Amino acid sequence: MAETTSTDQADRFNLPTKNLPAPQVRDLPEPPTQTWKIVGPGMVGAGVGLASGEFILWPYISSQVGLVFLWGAVVGVFVQWFLNMEIERYTLATGETALTGFNRFGKHWGLFFAIMTYFANLWPGWATSSAAMLTYLFGAGDPRWIAIGILVVIGLILTLAPVVYVMLERLIFVKILAVALLVILALIFAIRDKTYSALGDAVTHPEFPVETLGFALMMGAIAYAGAGGGQNLCQSNWIRDKGFGMGAHVPRLTSPVTGEPEADPTANGYTFPPDEQNLARWRRWWKFANVEQLMTFVLITVVTIVFTSMLAHATLFGNPAVENKISFLKIEGTTLQTLVGDWFGYLFWAIGAFALFAAAAGIVDYTSRLASDMIKSRYLRTSTISESKLYFGLVWGLVAFGIIVLLAGLDQPLVLLVISACTAGTMMFVYSGLLWWMNSRALPRAIRITKVRAAVMLFSFLAFGFLAVFTIIDQVKKL
To answer: Which residue ranges run through the membrane (predicted)?
Structure first.
């Protein structure tokens, strides 16, 4: 028998089978000729991410220091584009999620990230933010009880939708259209010359205003510029449900109440023979996936952060009444009513409330989706409990815990969002290194992570590690 050389090994898949079974071998599906039909996961990622960062953290920062730190948002979004693509690379090639891939290399890595994602998202800061904006819109109401109602509605939506991803994609599409309307109207009616001048100064004279903002807020803003934390990891699940690459062989997540019975999910993943035909298909899939993320996730996120920050600068910068509380959005809305008209203030609050509601739905979805996929693929492979039923239970568990948090009195959104964002930044520090390790060892040489992308992973690893350490030190000093 001929010996297998190291060169032969480099040209093959090398997925460890100690913790999970070996994947099945199938050809990589052909990319569709009309690729617009499968555009969506990047849009969902951007739409779910258009939440705390875009409507709260970055506008608040702009109200305090102007636009001089917007470069941090741009850097954060582009780093997350590279992170998302390394997450997608593994799923495109294997049909497995990144968490499942981590489990192949370490028995409980998936559990670690699922727990961290839960810790980041147990605090219902997005639901309370949406509730607060509804009280500004209608001039009455208790944000706590409104937030509880929002959580219950989210639970019903996610567990009654026949195909969860399809419902989420439609909800996010409506949200993006609403935010686009707000941006266009803001450009026409609200943003003045002084803000455009400040944007120019921010480009030529960027700053790192840590003394004014503190490391926790700055780290949270960078980590949540776009997605952040567990949401990046969920790109695996979303592109798989959309049928990207080898994900086309894996059943979609459906409702246990209204959806069709799901296929047998016990086969963890698939690999393809790295011959010329499959590699040609891979190159088309990889190009499409990169462009889809760039033209949806990156473009939508950067445009939204820039313009919501400009709107906050035009209405709030230099106002001593603005505090580190969600109530600054009430001041922003009333200022818009003075500058433009009552209608614009109400529109701002209405779109903000809907945007944060949709984000809260996306966050409950991806938190539960990551955990249900990890539990089923790693710990309950032979159980008769389906992934859909696990998802159902986890969604309502998260809703119930959020209600308990609100009833306990922890209802200050900005504080909850900073806690969540710091946890997300710490997660990104860890999985930046794991993604590089996994994609440089598990995949054939022809589709492995390149040196340029590996360098970005190293930058992400060091940057988020640095920010995590200094944030912890900053918070300890305040104790």
So the answer is: 38-58, 65-83, 109-138, 145-166, 172-191, 294-317, 346-368, 389-408, 414-434, 454-473
DSSP states of 399-460: HHHHHHHHHTT---HHHHHHHHHHHHHHHHHHHHHHHHHHHTTSS-GGGSPPHHHHHHHHHH
Query: If you search the block for the tokens 């709030």, which residue do you land on?
Result: 316
Cα–Cα nearest to 323, from 422, 415, 260: 415
Residue with tokens 């309307």: 181
Residue 25 host element (H or E): strand 24-25
DSSP label of 57: I
SS3 of 271, please?
strand
The CA distance from 435 to 100, in Å, is 12
**pLDDT, average across residues 272-293:** 94
| Residue range 129-149: mean pLDDT, rounded | 92
Question: pLDDT tens across 100-133, in order?
Answer: 999 999 888 989 999 888 888 887 877 888 999 9
Alpha helices in 224-341 (DSSP H): 230-233, 235-242, 276-293, 299-316, 328-339
Q: Which of 269, 221, 283, 460 is nearest to 377 (CA)?
A: 269
- Provide the token pair at 247: 């994900």
| Residue 262 pLDDT | 54
Q: How many other C-beta atoms can be found within 10 angstroms of the C-beta atom of residue 411?
A: 22
Per DSSP, the three-state class of 266 is coil
Q: Which long-range contacts (CB under 8 A, 24 or more apart) does 207-212 make?
A: 207/65, 207/68, 207/69, 208/69, 209/64, 209/65, 209/68, 209/69, 212/64, 212/65
**CA-wise closest residue to 57 among 168, 214, 200, 286:** 214
- pLDDT confidence tier of residue 3, bands split at 50, 70 and 90: very low
Helix (H) or strand (E) holding 270: strand 270-271
Q: What is the pLDDT of residues 209-263, one digit of tens each?
A: 888 887 777 776 776 677 778 889 999 988 988 889 998 888 776 666 655 555 4
Amino acid identity at 51: A
Q: Which two structure tokens, joined as six digits, stand for 196?
A: 């455009």
What would the pLDDT profile of 422-464 be if each residue is shown by its tens digit?
777 788 889 999 999 999 999 999 999 999 999 999 988 888 8
- In angstroms, the CA 474 to CA 287 distance is 42
Angle among Cα 85, 87, 92 to the nearest 5 degrees reads 85
Helix (H, G, I), strand (E, B) or coil at 96: coil
φ and ψ at 173, to 5 degrees? -60, -45
pLDDT surpasses 80 at 177: yes
Closest by CA position to 417, among listed 277, 221, 257: 221
pLDDT of residue 149: 96
Does residue 374 surpass a pLDDT of 80?
yes
